[in-house]
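Discussion board: Methods & Data

I've been asked by a reviewer to show the raw model output for two of the constructs in my manuscript, not just the figures. I'm not sure how much to include, so I'm pasting the format here to get opinions. Each protein appears as its amino acid sequence followed by a line of discrete structure tokens. Is this the kind of thing reviewers expect to see in a supplement, or should I convert it first? Here is construct A:
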Amino acid sequence: MEEVIKRIVDAEKEAEARIEKAKEEAKVIVEEAKSSAKAIEESILEDARKRAEEIIGKARAEGEAEAKVILENGEKEIEDMKVKATQNFENAVSVALELVRGS
């Protein structure tokens, strides 16, 4: 009978030891999972930052190119207006001289 009780006590101790070992393994697994999740999160955030920088850079380059075209077109329009103004001025001077001479 004493032998049976000893085996029961030993079995209980072994069961408790296994439970404790399983709890420790579970803690390690949870910590590893948290660490892995954090690394994945950081990687995703870094990828998102890089992608955002690429999009911003592309948009900036497109905006600058569009601004350059608008500026060039504006400068051409100003030149055209100067030419027309000069022509109109010359015509106005001619008409004024004709009026003065004709009087």
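Construct B, same format:
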Amino acid sequence: MVFTDLAHEVTRRVEAVGDGLNEALFEPVIRLGVTGLARSGKTVFITSLVASLLDRGRMSQLKAASDGRIVATYLQPQPNVTVPRFDYENHYAALTGQAPHWPESTRAVSELRLSFKVQPTGLLSGFQSPRTVHVDIVDYPGEWLLDLALLDLSYAEWSEQVLSRIADRTEAADYLAQVSETDAALALEEPKAQALAAGFTTYLNAARDAGYYDCTPGRFLLPGDLAGSPVLTFAPLPLVEKAPRRALWREMERRFEAYKAKVVKPFFRDYFARIDRQVVLVDALGAINRGPQAVEEMRRAMADILASFRPGRNAFLSRLLMGKRVERILFAATKADHLHHRQHGRLTAIMGALTRDAQDRAKFAGAKVDAMSIAALRATVEETMRHAGRDLDCVRGTLLDGGKQAAFYPGELPEDPSKLLSAARKGDSTWLDGDYEIMSFAPAKLSLKPGFGPPHIRLDQAAQFLLGDRL
């Protein structure tokens, strides 16, 4: 195993040197990672971003677009032929058709290459032909990213952490009952192992629906083609001292180690370690709606996610010799169109406060980090209504359930984010001085002018931060 890992590492370094020289001397490539936990809007973000970069009429804050330096943009086959292509065309059709609907969520890694012809700047720009810049967009589930923390844990350490963390959660009651009835020192019985894995998976799904973000292993939630395999048939159990070789506990340990070696490490090596720009999408409004506990869980998840990155500057020699680092990271609160624009600054401030620990660590390492509130596809319009003697700033859209038009007032976010975060850190069960509610809206019917992408909120600012310096 050690020699195999060393061989993989040498091969990766050689490939990195070759890729780095090719990018430096010929056509630069930006590898943009897009991730986020469930229902954060990854698929919609990528679809709208690509559509808006192809038709740039709404991208005024992307300087290369507003200056007219982007001569052409086109989709072309991705270089990695072993990774599924992001299904841009069908996702775009879902959002812009006669009966618009939200596309299917991210369930595995996918990739898309968008290539630009860009006119150079500077004194000699008039004598230079347009250069080519490629943007490889890599879409992957945030649940898989959290698995990287497992690499530093043994099965015994992971089991102890998980069982301690879930001891008081109602969602885990059935699984904990299974554990209490299990003697892990006895010989492995495959039906017993499968039942434990199924019970733990049921807990993970319930915990995610309840607003918990520490739901690992991520492939239990999104198994893909590994569903039913032994590498996903394990679960946390109390330590058994000197367990016999064929005991259930030993087999669970073996499968946990196999999960790290066969699932987590290849994901890190083949996809994650090659990313140099990263956007993390966050459904902050959904967490606020679920209450202080969900907000605190989200804050911890953001810190854990950043701990998986290798932030820092991608200087030429370090990129060749040490591999890529994530040099720009954007934490974006999605669904800003669920609020009146008057509250967007407050949502951005909350996003910044939620990710403060993560941002400080990345900046210290030399990366550029930002937080903002966005809507990759605007599904609402704003409206002010008179109610109980005061004006309420509302949003109006088509409800996802029922298809009716409705105006909605979500409540007032605090100007000071610490009011939310302090209640979350203290473990309050409800918000004491506010009542926040979020509705689910369907995408609106669109009538797009030629050259204009879908309506959005600050998607052009996000693109400028993530890509603008290279365009």
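Answer (T.O., handling editor elsewhere):
This is acceptable in a supplement if you add a one-line summary per construct. For B, something like: The first helix runs from residue 2 to 25.
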